Amino acid sequence: MGRPDLQALLASRKLFPILKQLVVGADHELCGDRDPVGAGLVDAVMASQVAGAIGGAALADAMFAVPALAVSRTRRGGGPVLLGEVVATAGLLLLIVTLARTGRAGQAAWPVDAWIGAAYWFTSSTAFANPAVTIGRTPTSTYAGIAPASAPAFITAEILGGALGTALAVIINPVQPH
User: Fold this and answer.
1) What does the domain layout of the chain look like in residue ranges?
2) Tens digit of pLDDT for each residue in 83-100?
């Protein structure tokens, strides 16, 4: 990994505190004072997602006989692609938060899978829709990868989309008094 790529990837990690605040805030909005998650759990989940994404990329590389953990050179960016990532992530969070706020979080598996599968085709970004996925795709030289220099803009678009989707879900599905 060249020095500029390393700096870009490290810069994307600086966005994680913002993401963590959004996750903790969204959880508080969803749960109120009923068993909200702590920041430590958010850190553990984010670390697990990043590790899983990198491990998955390495496994996929091995299955297709390409060098594992090779730095991606696939540049992704520009207004239309980043807008596609905002749309993919906003739709994903709108779906998840709506299901949670309407008492159907247990049914999220198939709608989330359907959203990501569809968003791959209808967005210009191919719907990474998760900073862990973005980071996990930096160490693969396949067409599915993303150059480390492109990751910070993608993660920023995902944070923006996540905040937008969560806000829309909260507006559309207000908490009903008990």
Assistant:
1) 3-172
2) 999 999 999 989 988 888
